[in-house]
Design goal:
By secondary structure, the protein is of the alpha/beta class. It is built from four helices and five strands, in the order βββαβαβαα. A hairpin with a 6-residue loop joins β2 and β3. The protein is globular. The protein starts with a strand and ends in a 5-residue tail after the last helix. The model has no long low-confidence stretch (mean pLDDT 86).
Length: 142
Amino acid sequence: MRILAVDPGAVRVGLALSDEGERLATPLSTLQSGRGLGARVARAARDAGAELVVVGLPRRLDGSEGPEAAQARELAAAISAEGLGAELWDERFTSVMAAAALRESRPRRGRKAAAARREDTDRVAAAVLLQSFLDSRRPPAP
């Protein structure tokens, strides 16, 4: 089964997709945040052949939830209302890890490069989130 992950943000949401064997997460695309996001994510999931959507749940360092977490819960509910399974998954540090990986892999400068890097960061953060989710579903090695 393929799984789509969503890294929600105020401006954009990053999407990532698993392989059929649920072993590897790959950055996919970004969508603009805003009205009808649940339906747009559900459409992207269906287009990609995903049966489950994992929505990043932003938590504070102490584990508590703020207004962003409430928005993530609303997004998961909207996706469920579209007929797809939706699960929440802790997304702490995914954007930080994604940005660091991108800086190391291809440093860029300038406005266009910065805008592209932000979109790349959103997609890669979704992949980091999804890989964490996929890894948690595997049985421990003997």
